[in-house]
Write a structure and sequence with these properties.
This protein is mostly beta strands and 122 residues long. It is globular and about 40 Å long.
């Protein structure tokens, strides 16, 4: 059974940086399309960035230029490097995996981690 475990969240001041990690266990990560999503209490979960098995990436508009998603399949780990963090980036960040890129983030066959909290203060 595939499991995802996020780490690296925390509290930072506006303008700071964090690197989130997502460790994949139970299966080789190179078989999965991977992504980062975030959610604020009371709001819908939204995509932050995605990376396919070939390494092609997609970013939400708010993440473009500030966040970088990467994967190290030798370590079964996906990363999200976040720079120039803003107060509005405060959220719980979730790692997600799906065999199918078009289904990543959708309920069908998407595997989710437990989430890691990111808090940005002014």
């Amino acid at each position: 059974q595939v499991q995802l475990q996020e780490s690296g969240g925390g509290s930072v001041q506006s303008g700071g940086s964090l690197r989130l990690s997502c460790a994949v266990s139970g299966y080789s990560s190179d078989r999965y399309q991977m992504g980062w999503f975030r959610q604020v209490t009371g709001k819908e979960r939204e995509v932050v960035a995605k990376i396919d098995t070939a390494g092609s990436t997609y970013y939400a508009d708010f993440a473009t230029g500030r966040f970088t998603i990467s994967r190290d399949d030798a370590k079964n780990t996906v990363y999200l490097e976040m720079t120039n963090l803003k107060v509005e980036d405060t959220a719980t960040y979730y790692c997600a995996a799906n065999h199918w890129y078009s289904d990543l983030g959708r309920p069908l066959n998407t595997i989710w981690g437990q989430g890691t909290q990111v808090t940005v203060s002014s």
